[in-house]
Amino acid sequence: MKLIADCHFHTISSGHAYSTITEYAKEASEKGLELIGMTDHGPMLPGSCHMYHFDNLKIIPDSMFGVEILKGMEANILDYDGTLDAVDTVTGHLEVLIASFHTPCLAPGTREENTRAMINAMKNPFVNILGHPDDGRIEVDYTEIAKAAAHYGVLIEVNNSSLRPTSFRLNATENYKRLLEECCKNNVYIIINSDSHIHTDIGEFEEALNLVKEVGYPKELIANASLKRLKNRLFIRRK
User: Using the 8-state DSSP alphabet, how is residue 39 labeled?
Assistant: First the structure.
C-alpha cells in the first residue's frame, strides 16, 4: 500500500527538530508524496515556538517542489479537561490540528483521567487528529477512545516513530493492536504519520504499515491512502 501524505512532522521551530520546511518539501517530493502537513509543537512544550509562529504560517507557500503543504500544529493537552495550548483565533485558520498528550505538559494520571483528557481534547471542533495515543506510560481506555473518535470524526494516528526500536514510548506495538481492534469495530478512520524530527524521516512508514497489515486494518479506513479521502476527513469538521 502506498501512502500519499504525511501530516505530522516538526521543523527547527519546534526546538528539538533539525530541518527546515524547504528540506522537508524537497525530500517529500523525491519520495513521491503529494501532500505534507507541517505541525510544530504548541508553545507550552519546553523549547517550542511562540504562538506568533502559527499566526504567521500564512506566509509559507501552499506548495513547494510540487508537494502541497498544509499548515498546522501539534497542540499539547494541558489538563484532564482536554484544554489545549492553542488559541482559537489562530487554530481556526490551521488545516491540521493534532491533539497530543506529552508528559512534560501533563503528568499521566489515572486511566480514567487520561481517557477523559484525550476525549475532551477531541471535542474541540478544530482538532482533526489525535496524536500517538500509544504510550504505555499514559494508560487509557481504548474502547472509549475509539468510540469518541468515531463520534467526533477525529482521525486516530498510528505513529511510525512510536513503533521504532529507538522510541521512548512504552509498549506501542501491543497498544496499537488493542486500539486498532477497537477502531475497526467502530469504523474509525486512521492516519499513518512519521512524526519526523528530521527531513530524512518524512514519508517513512515501514513499521506502521507492517502493523496495519498484520492486524488486517481495512485500507478504506486509512485516510492518507487517498488524497481525496484524506482531505475529506481532515476538513469534515470545518464544514
Answer: E
Q: What is the mean pLDDT of residues 3-32?
A: 98
Q: Residue 39: give its domain's CATH number.
A: 3.20.20.140
Q: What is the pTM of this model?
A: 0.97
Cα of first residue to Cα of last residue in the chain, in angstroms, is 29
Number of domains in the chain: 1
**Other CB atoms within 10 Å distance of the CB of residue 78:** 19
Measured distance CA(130)–CA(133) in Å, rounded: 7
Chain CA centroid to CA 171, Å: 18
Query: Residue 210 sits in which domain range?
Result: 5-238
Q: Is the dihedral of CA 96, 236, 210, 5 positive or negative?
A: negative
C-alpha span between 26 and 38 (Å, rounded): 13
For residue 17, the Cα-to-chain-centroid distance in whole angstroms is: 16
∠159-198-179 over CA atoms, to 5°?
Answer: 5
> How far is it, in rounded angstroms, from Cα 180 to Cα 157?
10
